[in-house]
Amino acid sequence: MNFEEYRAKPLLAKSGIAVPESALVRDADAARAAAEKIGRCVVKAQVPTGKRGKAGGIKLAATPEEAKFHAQAILGMEIDGYRVEKLLVEAQVPISRELYAAVLNDAGSRNPMILFSMMGGMDVEEVAETDPEAMRKIPVDIRRGFDLAMARHALEGCGLAEMEGAVAEVLVQLYQAYRGYDAELLEINPLVLTNDKRVIALDCKLTIDDSAAPRQAELAEQAAPELMTALEAKAQQAGLKYIALGGSVGVLANGAGLTMTSMDAITHYGGQPANFLEIGGEAYTKAKIALSILLENQEIRSLLVNFCGAFARTDVMTEGLVSAWKELAPDIPIFFTIHGTGEEEAVKIVRAELGLEPFDLMDDAVKAAVAAAAEAA
């Protein structure tokens, strides 16, 4: 779940991190009224994506009329596929230095990782590329946590002088917010030092683990709507997860892990997967709707079906898929590999109804699907 800035900033404030005075508006006149109250301000597009400034979605305004002018220009703008319908009018602050701070899930250590840089306000990728040493990486043992002493130690040698303690406190508060809200990423860029010796978060990016929704029910309702294609939306309505990937080998498997393994194997053998689409868990009976969604992608030249049953029965999935295949009658080759619960029955269904022989090995099925797609192309 991704959150727009105006949703994430109050969570920082609730955790003790200072944020500028601001107002959410939806039209230019409201932006002008907000600026009259706030004073010199920043007019910021509210969409759940980065690089808003580069797209022209963040503008400084010295007067209410200027705020209205910028609001008129930004509203309706499209940034990274999102239409701007809301603005945050935020007070300008006297910036002395821009920093970067974030906490994220580190796949390597399977623990949180705190990132800190004295080069805030820039793209993280750009900082890492131009000067890898500029980004400090502080691994955190999730069992032990992260306290003020650790934060001070992490900031040693950064040149923060008398502001080191205040910045260290913000890092601790940021980590606590990350843990408290089940975040995958909580980022402040820039985190600024002001001329009057304050530490203020000027922006915030928040991503929360989808599986945390039951624990964060109230917060989950505030998440930004996911930007989806028509097929992705159709799949979601059917209780399926579909992602178009641009390749020519269609993939239909049960379980996210097996689907990703199938995709990796397709790439390994020289092909390109056309999609992510899995029918595991409670969706294992939805082979028919899954197939119909998948076949709406006109770029698919072959289809790999990889079923491996544990609790889900492969014969139930296969029966639904074969029935749909005969009904839809697609003009592409299909390749099966089936193992696990209901395997014998599933193989019999494929043989009897489609006249095809499933492959014993996944690799052989993948190679055949990749070769067929290449030949069709």
UniProtKB/TrEMBL annotation:
Its cofactor is Mg(2+). Keywords: ATP-binding, Ligase, Magnesium, Metal-binding, Nucleotide-binding, Tricarboxylic acid cycle. InterPro entries: ATP-grasp, ATP-grasp_succ-CoA_synth-type, ATP_grasp_subdomain_1, Succ-CoA_synthase_bsu_CS, SUCC_ACL_C, Succ_CoA_ligase-like_bsu, Succinyl-CoA_synth-like. GO terms for molecular function: ATP binding; metal ion binding; succinate-CoA ligase (ADP-forming) activity. PROSITE patterns: ATP_GRASP, SUCCINYL_COA_LIG_3. Pfam families: ATP-grasp_2, Ligase_CoA. Residues 9-221 form the ATP-grasp domain. One of its GO terms (cellular component) is succinate-CoA ligase complex. This is Succinate--CoA ligase. It comes from Denitrobaculum tricleocarpae. The lineage of its organism: Bacteria, Pseudomonadati, Pseudomonadota, Alphaproteobacteria, Rhodospirillales.
